[in-house]
Design a protein that fits this description.
- The chain has a single domain, classed as Aminopeptidase, CATH 3.40.630.10.
- With about 190 residues, it is α/β, with parallel strands linked by helices.
- The longest helix has 23 residues.
- Helix 1 packs antiparallel against helix 4.
- The chain is built from six helices and seven strands.
- Strand 6 and strand 7 form a beta hairpin.
- The strands form two sheets. A four-stranded mixed β-sheet has the order 1-4-2-3, sandwiched between helices. Strands 5-6-7 form a three-stranded antiparallel β-sheet, covered by helices on one side.
Length: about 190
């Protein structure tokens, strides 16, 4: 796996935070922290531009609290993944019942999250100097409307040199929210070339 994964993004709820490593102690950063901050700032801005949702950016230890043993820290330090982020989605950290997101916020949350993830994908594409790509949306969704039966969605980017990026899992509402508009829009961008 080392060197084969370009991004590791883990989705959590709640607090509206875009977190990068390291989380085990305050003021502890990977060597490429400037790259993580640069892409993170752009992603947070993309999220905000859609619906005005504001995310805080920083390490988990610095903007939340120190926490050891996180998969994001492992992905960065042991698996050597370049772009590693832990996202704390809506609602904001002051909401009392934040784990029970109002259903009217599900699609906006999916759309704004996708806007931020697209920034990370763009950064990967630039770092790999990819000039064109084909988009694939794979799903084990069996057509039922029961969201409990949906387990994993994969979004992959490929070019002739077999470069692949996978983001998984995404909730069906998030995929439906972007599939018809944003994904098609994004496909056109890739086919025009970067």
């Amino acid at each position: 796996m080392f060197g084969k994964v370009d991004a590791f993004i883990t989705l959590h709820t709640y607090s509206q935070m875009w977190i990068y490593p390291f989380g085990h102690q305050r003021r502890s950063f990977p060597k490429d922290v400037k790259d993580l901050e640069k892409v993170g700032k752009k992603a947070v801005k993309a999220v905000e531009n859609l619906y005005g949702t504001k995310f805080r950016l920083g390490t988990g230890a610095d903007i939340l609290y120190p926490s050891s043993g996180g998969s994001d820290d492992w992905a960065k330090s042991k698996a050597g993944v370049k772009f590693v982020y832990l996202l704390e989605l809506r609602p904001g950290e002051n909401d009392f019942d934040g784990f029970l997101l109002d259903r009217r916020q599900l699609i906006p949350t999916g759309r704004e999250t996708w806007a931020g993830v697209r920034v990370v994908i763009d950064a990967i594409m630039r770092s790999k100097k990819v000039r064109s790509a084909n988009l694939f949306l794979k799903s084990d969704y069996n057509g039922t409307k029961d969201i409990t039966r949906i387990s994993t969605f994969h979004f992959s980017l490929q070019h002739p040199k077999k470069f692949v990026t996978t983001v998984s899992p995404l909730m069906k509402t998030s995929i439906d929210a972007v599939k018809s508009q944003s994904l098609m829009e994004y496909a056109q961008i890739f086919h025009r070339g970067v």
